[in-house]
Amino acid sequence: MTSLVKILNWKSILEIIILWMVIYRIFLFLKGTKAVYLLRGIIVLVISLLAFQLLGLPVLTRILTYLFAFFLILVAIIFQPELREGLIRLGRRHIFHMEPQIEKMEQVLREIVSSVGVLSRKKIGGLIAIKREMGLRKYTESGVVLDADITSELVQNIFYPSAPLHDGGVIIEGSRIVAAACLFPLSDNPNIERTLGMRHRAAVGLSETADSVVIVVSEETGIISLAIEGQLTRRLSPNDLFTILKGQLTKT
């Protein structure tokens, strides 16, 4: 009897480990799409369903079971493009793929901040969005796909006034410049200073609709600003910008 209990306990622990590994891989699979937020909602529904079962509430359990099944079908229909994008990304990912190390991300940020510092000194306008969890596919498709390594020189060349891609924004994902000359949604927030132009409204607009952090360099003043979750922080030095970006993008 004791040995049976030990076996069951061992099996239970193994099941929990496997379950969490599967959930983690699903999160990686959906990372970068809006569907990841629905996955979190599904987890909440599952926990609620288990709680109702443990509390012995058959009516609520039955209702939630039906809603859960309907919800899964609805998700598969509505978020088909996002799921397809996640499948493509999963197919390209090695099974033992690890997220970029913090040191590598810091080097990427140094390249970005270096380019922003030069743009600021020369008073060249710039708009740079750095993707976090939510995908930016819709905005990437509005521009020109580059898929290039990030270097300070490349970013500067993109925004050089006579360059063909200087209008619009640059989208960065990981250590790659995904696209340039992208169109971002304009914010209609009435609290934005009226003296600020289209770049600043586009930066705030994208940060409102996605979880990206967006850097703006003013063409008129060279002032560096950063938009996060609809809030615009202005008059940043390159060092301040690096510190904030590092805090936002290298969280473990």
CATH superfamily of the largest domain: DNA integrity scanning protein, DisA, N-terminal domain
Structural class: alpha+beta
Quaternary structure state of the chains depicted: single chain
Largest sheet: 7 strands, mixed
Output the radius of gyration.
Answer: 23 Å
Strand order of the largest sheet: 2-4-3-1-5-6-7
List the secondary-structure elements in sequence, H or E.
HHHHHEHEHEEHEEEH
CATH class of the largest domain: Alpha Beta
β content, as a range?
15-25%
Calculate the terminal CA-CA distance, rounded to whole Å. 43 Å
Helical amount = 55-70%
Strand segment count? 7
Explain how this protein is built.
The protein has two domains: 2-92, no CATH class; 102-249, YojJ-like (1 (3-Layer(aba) Sandwich). Helix content is 56%, strand content 15%. The protein contains nine helices and seven strands. A hairpin with a 2-residue loop joins strand 6 (224-228) and strand 7.
Question: Quick recap of the structure?
Answer:
The protein contains nine helices and seven strands. With 252 residues, it is of the alpha+beta class.
